[in-house]
Design brief:
It is a single chain. By secondary structure, the protein is an alpha/beta fold. The chain has helices spanning 17-28, 68-76, 111-128, 142-145, 150-157, 161-175, 184-194, 197-201, 216-227, 268-271, 282-289, 307-310, 347-352, 357-372, 405-409, 435-453, and strands at residues 8-13, 33-36, 48-51, 54-57, 62-63, 81-83, 89-93, 99-102, 210-212, 231-232, 237-242, 247-251, 256-264, 275-277, 296-303, 313-319, 326-329, 338-345, 381-386, 420-422. It contains 16 helices and 20 strands. Strands 1, 2, 10, 11, 12, 13, 14 and 20 form an 8-stranded mixed β-sheet that branches. A 7-stranded mixed β-sheet has the order 8-7-16-17-18-15-19. α1 (17-28) links the parallel β1 (8-13) and β2 (33-36). The longest helix has 19 residues, at 435-453. The protein binds flavin-adenine dinucleotide. Residues 13-19, 36-39, 44-46, 59-62, 236-237, 265-267, 270, 274, 296, 298, 387, 392-393, 396-398, 424-425, 433-436, 438 line the site of flavin-adenine dinucleotide.
């Protein structure tokens, strides 16, 4: 094959929300695209499944204020949004199994603990405001902030044991990892990328405020359908060669595509499993060696009706006892049946995964029964998705930066390597790790590549 012959302008590797948006937008720019997806369906971390004849999100599903690009995309595709059900009381289960009902984000933990947690939240927000999301490594005090974990900060800052326990649960809920795994600088970057800590934790006014009609997977499905034959499923990319004039992208079955550019739209740990020739710069490879994915098992339990609503409960719960970290109401907009989603996160997810499917089911339903009563224990259907087992995701919600990664190797995260460009929720300075971040990253990569191909436009 001549090096001056191109099969296509651009190959996009991976069709999560980032790759889908990137391919969609490149076509809008008049650029010829092929999108290669390893799995049998598009969507990545926003993939769907049919349960009892209705679609459900196995991965990301909530959106909220400030996530302007995903709202714009939904509007463009004619997908309506609707508010997450939040009427009624939330529940916090204490370590000893006591149930505390509360509204908003402040469970009645006792005055000292409440003050302690409020103070910690205030300090995290204040510190986060000092972080530069474009170049976190240039933030004031970056090396000190990146030289400690969220755990060491909590241990030093939070005085009460129950306050420390609550913030640990918050970390598991937000990042799907233990506070000991997470760089403080990354936690602060992530908060700033969303706007504030409450933007991360809240339903109303925060990232869990709204849902998409037909689910987030429906949005991915529409983008995938729009790509038509430009989307190739069951096509894991194994090798990317680059030279001065273009790239050659080779799929598992040996098919090779010669293109002017390639956009790799997968999390760094997954992007690193592709063979690059010549090899990637040391800093880029070193960075991806350090960015493990979080650990989450998502459960979807369906019921004939949302029975917790009649008991005055919102369906949102937090548990300090576990194994469930948090739950939410995910019933259809009509409310004509009940759906509860539950998350088992961090070390608890890794631990639960070692048990038999029957044991896991029992552990999950026991916890759900403690939170919502006996009806919760007999769902019509219970679906489980352990994201760590997915061969082309290997964890979620997103990559977890340990100490030292941002300050030592951060610049390699987004910098293109010749004609290889990076997209994905991990590359976005706004809403890192979220659907909106993925959308933004796809747009940014598409615009950069299109500019190179059609500089006049
Ligand atoms: C359980 C769960 C709950 C979440 N909740 C929310 C939420 O409520 N709100 C929110 O905003 N975000 C949420 N998230 C996060 C959000 O879903 C992700 O940040 C976002 O979807 C990531 O999109 P992406 O395109 O960057 O990556 P991905 O979705 O991971 O896409 C990468 C794609 O690349 C493919 N791929 C990988 N390697 C190759 C290869 N070699 N060749 C070809 N293809 C390859 C993968 O199969 C995948 O399709 C959640 C995630 C999970 C898992």
């Amino acid at each position: 094959m001549s090096h001056h012959h191109f099969d296509i302008d651009v190959v996009v590797v991976g069709t999560g929300m980032a790759g889908l948006v990137c391919a969609h937008r490149l076509r809008r720019h008049g650029v010829d695209v092929v999108a290669l997806e390893a799995c049998h369906q598009a969507g990545g971390r926003t993939v769907g499944v049919e349960i009892d004849g209705e679609g459900a999100d196995l991965g990301g599903q909530f959106i909220g204020p400030g996530q302007d690009r995903v709202y714009a995309l939904a509007a463009e595709l004619g997908v309506a949004t609707f508010p997450t059900y939040t009427a009624g009381a939330n529940v916090l289960e204490t370590e000893t199994g006591r149930l505390l009902r509360f509204r908003g984000m402040a469970p009645k933990l006792g005055l000292l603990t409440l003050l302690d947690v409020a103070r910690a939240r205030f300090r995290l927000d204040r510190l986060a405001r000092t972080v530069d999301t474009e170049t976190p490594w240039h933030s004031p005090n970056a090396s000190a902030l990146d030289g400690q974990t969220l755990r060491s900060w909590i241990d030093r800052t939070v005085r009460t044991r129950s306050g420390r326990r609550f913030l640990t649960l918050a970390c598991q809920a937000i990042w799907a990892c233990e506070p000991s795994e997470l760089s403080l600088l990354h936690a602060l970057f992530y908060i700033k990328a969303a706007g504030s800590l409450s933007a991360l934790t809240d339903f109303e006014g925060g990232a869990q405020q709204d849902r998409l009609d037909g689910g987030a997977h429906g949005l991915a499905g529409k983008l995938a359908a729009g790509l038509g034959a430009a989307l190739r499923l069951n096509a894991p990319v194994r090798r990317i060669e680059r030279d001065d004039s273009g790239v050659t992208v080779t799929v598992d079955d040996g098919t090779a595509l010669r293109a002017k550019h390639v956009v790799v739209a997968a999390a760094p740990a997954l992007a690193a499993r592709i063979d690059y020739h010549p090899p990637l710069p040391a800093a880029r490879d070193n960075l991806s060696q350090r960015l493990p994915m979080g650990s989450v098992i998502k459960y979807i339990a369906t019921y004939p009706e949302p029975f917790w609503r009649t008991a005055g409960l919102s369906g949102a719960a937090l548990s300090l006892r576990g194994p469930i970290a948090l739950t939410a109401d995910s019933s259809p907009r009509s409310g004509n049946r009940g759906v509860l989603i539950g998350f088992v996160n961090g070390a608890t997810a890794r631990d639960l995964a070692t048990r038999s499917p029957a044991d896991r089911r029992t552990a999950f339903l026991d916890a759900l029964t403690r939170l919502f009563g006996p009806q919760a224990g007999t769902p019509v259907t219970l679906v489980e998705r352990n994201w760590n087992e997915e061969p082309f995701t290997r964890g979620a919600y997103s990559a977890v930066f340990p100490p030292g990664a941002w300050t030592q190797l951060g610049p390699a995260l987004r910098a293109p390597v010749g004609r290889i460009h990076w997209a994905g929720a991990e590359t976005s300075p706004r809403w890192y790790g979220y659907i909106d971040g993925a959308v933004r990253s796809g747009e940014t990569a598409a615009d950069a590549v299109a500019q190179d191909i059609h500089p006049s436009r």
